[in-house]
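Students often ask why inverse folding is considered easier than folding. One informal answer: many sequences map to the same fold, so there is more than one right answer. In these notes we will look at a single instance of the problem. The structure comes first.
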């Protein structure tokens, strides 16, 4: 089954916000009045926005920091939505070809615009994800009315991925760089979380879930995330899960006092995002960090006007796209959260003697990942530039023996890049004796 529009969550009843945490872990950028569905590793976002109110129409969009929000139009009809984007700027989703008609999967490129990817013989289809090679994962109707997962490529067109033994339906929600697909397939009346690969075909993840399970995300390590429900009576108590080849299934749990959670996406570093219930019964966006802890994202941002209710996707830089509602009930918004880099500074010898070599070590980190290797850190003594060092796994060093006798205010600053903002200066007082 395909994950339902977050727009429905975003425009629902006004939700309460948990108290702000002391430390702000993310900066917040407003994309606009929309629902963001995907973010690539260059910070470009794809999603859906309300194009017209009467009659109601939704259109797919793509957003970038430099170009803002761009309406991708439709296939000739009145409706579209975007669910996936890759770093080449290719966007996938669903759109109709005439007003009121059923939607079909589309691929949008800057050069060709929006084109239909067709169906598997039935009336409708949807494209949910696209990888760096341009392979598309989704689901499409057959002539007999059932739905099957598909993999589309420029050379091969739509490939029916089939079903599990004894099943009749399936769907694909995510795809990684290697072309591994994650999604669902039914066995009897329940959906089972599955993966599919060219070499092994469709595989049931084997999650014990009387009321079903579905995979929504897969990263390049093959780690899968989604939701499952093993409750008696199929109450609304689903939990997010992660699954790996070596470790198998792991329940991601819920917030303290909450009853349910859903995991929607996973980054290369293993951070997971989704949505769930808080201890006060509010719907909130969730982050699972690599240590397994679950966080209400509202406690990791500074926002006095908006509540984030669903985290729909995360990229390998740790950026998260979220649906947010206005606390005064007047709107719903698409936001992108970017990890804030912080720096710490240490000295190899403090105090040191005049003429002695001292190595300063700066460590730059965030709640997600450190900056890319090779990016610089600037070291200063007061206002005078000492030099710079290149980051390796978040650490940069600089060695000097030129400091004079006395106290020196040493600072280290990460200057930022196209994704991350500059860090605040890390400061220490270096004492040099005779």
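Output (designed amino acids):
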């Amino acid at each position: 089954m395909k994950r339902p529009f977050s727009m429905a969550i975003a425009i629902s009843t006004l939700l309460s916000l948990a108290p702000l945490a002391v430390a702000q872990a993310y900066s917040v950028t407003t994309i606009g009045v929309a629902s963001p569905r995907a973010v690539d590793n260059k910070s470009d976002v794809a999603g859906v926005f309300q194009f017209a109110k009467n009659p109601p129409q939704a259109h797919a969009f793509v957003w970038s920091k430099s170009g803002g929000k761009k309406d991708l139009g439709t296939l000739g009809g009145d409706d579209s939505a975007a669910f996936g984007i890759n770093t080449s700027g290719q966007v996938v989703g669903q759109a109709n070809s005439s007003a009121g008609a059923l939607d079909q999967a589309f691929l949008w490129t800057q050069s060709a615009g929006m084109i239909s990817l067709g169906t598997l013989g039935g009336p409708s289809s949807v494209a949910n994800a696209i990888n760096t090679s341009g392979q598309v994962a989704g689901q499409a109707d057959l002539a007999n009315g059932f739905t099957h997962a598909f993999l589309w490529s420029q050379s091969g067109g739509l490939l029916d991925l089939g079903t599990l033994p004894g099943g009749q339906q399936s769907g694909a929600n995510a795809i990684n760089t290697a072309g591994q697909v994650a999604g669902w397939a039914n066995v009897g009346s329940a959906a089972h979380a599955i993966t599919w690969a060219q070499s092994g075909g469709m595989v049931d993840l084997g999650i014990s879930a009387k009321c079903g399970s579905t995979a929504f995300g897969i990263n390049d390590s093959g780690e899968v995330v989604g939701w499952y429900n093993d409750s008696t009576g199929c109450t609304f108590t689903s939990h997010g899960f992660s699954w790996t080849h070596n470790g198998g299934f792991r329940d991601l749990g819920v917030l303290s006092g909450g009853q349910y959670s859903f995991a929607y996406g996973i980054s290369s570093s293993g951070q997971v995002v989704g949505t769930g219930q808080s201890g006060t019964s509010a719907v909130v966006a969730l982050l699972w960090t690599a240590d397994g802890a679950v966080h209400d994202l509202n406690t990791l941002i500074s926002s006095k006007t908006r509540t984030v209710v669903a985290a729909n996707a995360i990229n390998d830089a740790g950026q998260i796209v979220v649906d947010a509602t206005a606390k005064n009930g007047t709107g719903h918004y698409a936001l992108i959260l970017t990890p804030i880099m912080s720096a710490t500074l240490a000295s190899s010898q403090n105090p040191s003697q005049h003429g002695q070599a001292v190595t300063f070590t700066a460590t730059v980190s965030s709640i997600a990942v450190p900056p890319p290797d090779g990016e610089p850190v600037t070291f200063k003594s007061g206002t005078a530039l000492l030099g710079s060092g290149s980051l390796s796994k978040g650490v940069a060093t600089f060695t000097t023996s030129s400091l004079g006798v006395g106290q020196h205010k040493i600072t280290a600053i990460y200057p930022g890049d196209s994704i991350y903002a500059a860090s605040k200066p890390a400061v220490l007082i270096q004492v040099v004796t005779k």
